[in-house]
Amino acid sequence: MAANGSPGSPAKRMRPDRSPALGALPPPTFDLETWASNYEGALLPLRLAHIAIHCPTLSHESMTSAVSAAKKGKDVQLYTGLCELAKQLGHSDLATPDAEWVTKQEEGNRRETARLEGELRGYKNNLIRESIRMGQEDIATHMLVTGGPAPDSNNPQSLNTSGYNAAYQAFGKMRDYCTTPTHIASMTLRLIYTSLLQAVHAQQQGLTATTHFNATLANAGRLRTVGGTLHGADLTRALASANDLAIYGGLTALATFSRQELLDKVLGGNFRPFLELEPHMRKAISLYTTAKYQACLDTLRRYYSDWRLDIFLGAPSTAFPSSTSTGIPESHVDALFARIREKSITAHFTSFSEISLASLASTFPPTSSSPTAMEDEILQMIESGQLDARLDVVNGLLIAPREERRTNAHAEAKRTAAEVERTLLLRLHRVNATLGGLEIPRPKGQPAWGEVGGAGYGA
User: Fold this and answer.
1) What are 296-306's pLDDT values in tens digits?
2) Whole-angstrom Cα distance, residue 180 to residue 176?
3) Residues of 379-393 as b/e, b for ≥16 C-beta within 10 angstroms?
4) Which of 66, 144, 238, 344 is the most interior residue, by most CB within 10 Å?
5) Region Disordered: start and end of each range (predicted)?
6) Among 312, 306, 315, 241, CA closest to 55
């Protein structure tokens, strides 16, 4: 595993990125304490730190909860990194780590690591595959909980075997000792969780997380094909809640599915129970399917702050590297909102042969204050092939492509004539074959060859 997402020194574990646009975010609609109760594990402090960085009104409260959650665990590097982040954000009461706790926890982690490594060596000497697998799983889980060994500042290559990289490699070593599909499925699920942790750390350091996300997708593909039953591997609260699944699935469905697919697969499929947990998402999808596009966008926009503060939706998106006006990296939720808006404009325009840009701007207010914002947006959609239309800049009109009715009528007439000619020719062949005595007599009680299945020369 590449080290581009490995945690470095504690001061570099998380990097605040308070841009003006992010600082202008209004407070979210959720209660922080209630929201935090939906999660557990190493991602909870990272989620809280993400909120502290991007939402000034909740910065101190979320930073306090993040430090407290990290101190309940065993990851010393995570705890000291959060204290350093609190110092950078100006929370002096949280900036000083508890030296006594750090020393005690580091010593306990070292003792536990030595014990697990000793047990694993004993299992390998006994050559019992199941014991070796369980011992390898124990030490990998320990590295995951404690954040792995700290990197050596004098040896850059140590990044490959430190932090969550060490846990990922330890879980990967279980593969040689897995004897059932259940073992492989359990190992693969833990690899997915670890690679997601690596990706989150990389993003919060301002590094690329592509390698880790690719590893996540590859392991997810293996998990779908390996079969087996997962035991003791419930990572639901550690990764995402059921409400998160409703939001992730709803937004991506709106950005990619057609109206009929939304009706069949989302509102009327197995995904509907998740939407019951997020009524506003179900309402937005229902509004889109009934062609109330602006109401759909307004409903989504009310919860933009909530989703922008999500650690996955709020991460920088490669689809929109930066804003054209501020140079600020766009997030995944920004990319999804932009895609949903483009789909809405395209679907709205299909009902018209031409429409004025002023009317279009009144239905879909531009996202910027530029006087040519609507014109620029439509032009970009046309150039990218997402909108099949012509833009009349002089008259301010968006014109649908003219339908060549005369040409289409001629083409349809030629196609019909060719089909009629082919049918008549086949019937003529059958008549000639019958008159020439070439027709094979059929046994009594059986249908004619041309009548089987309704096909043949007479069809």
Assistant:
1) 999 999 999 99
2) 11
3) eebeeeeebebebee
4) 66
5) 1-25
6) 306
